[in-house]
């Protein structure tokens, strides 16, 4: 089955005491109709408050699988609407956790490239109102994937997601997340993934060369 976009979601301004130092967050992303332009910095109309930790070329677009969202609905016993993870693309029939770092997706007229997993933060926990969400999200290890924009274009709900290139190194989004958070024995694998942002590979090198305490 060909993967597809279920919804395209952009952030609205949310003001809350959990929303970081400036009290504003763009984590509340909501489905929008029609075609949405995508640029190197992300989707047109997407509000991002904390540009230090979110957005930028390596985190221009965030994708999360509807199948993983369904797991969380069952786990928490509540509905989670598309965009509820702060994702720009809610996907169907795409193995987002198993996506290889550097693989390319053609979506609409845009070409996107998988770069890294998402790291949960206190803002995410505050938005959901689940105090131990970071621990639970980490243990689940289905973080969703950030993507960079290789070719600008437009995309929309219902667009097929076609994987047009997959690097031979085979390092997946899930492996990177587990290496950084759960299984340090996987850290050497990260050095083979040339398309990982340099700061992540540098972090892996530092951890591999630092003696255990």
Low-pLDDT segments, ≥5 res? none
Based on CA atoms alone, the radius of gyration comes out at 17 Å
CATH superfamily: PK beta-barrel domain-like
- Give the mean pLDDT: 94
Helicity level, as a percent range? 10-25%
In the CATH hierarchy, what is the architecture at level 2?
Beta Barrel
> What's the tally of helices?
6
Instruction: Give the topology string: H per helix, E per strand.
Output: EEEEEEEHEEEHHEEEHHH
What is the third-level CATH name, the topology? Answer: M1 Pyruvate Kinase, Domain 3
Which shape, going by the Cα principal axes? globular
Number of strands: 13
Secondary structural class: alpha+beta
**N-end to C-end Cα span:** 48 Å
The CATH class is Mainly Beta
Q: How many distinct folded domains?
A: 1
Q: Kindly estimate the percentage of residues that lie in beta strands according to DSSP.
A: 25-35%
What does the largest sheet look like? 7 strands, mixed, barrel
Please give the order of strands in the largest beta sheet. Answer: 1-8-7-11-10-9-13
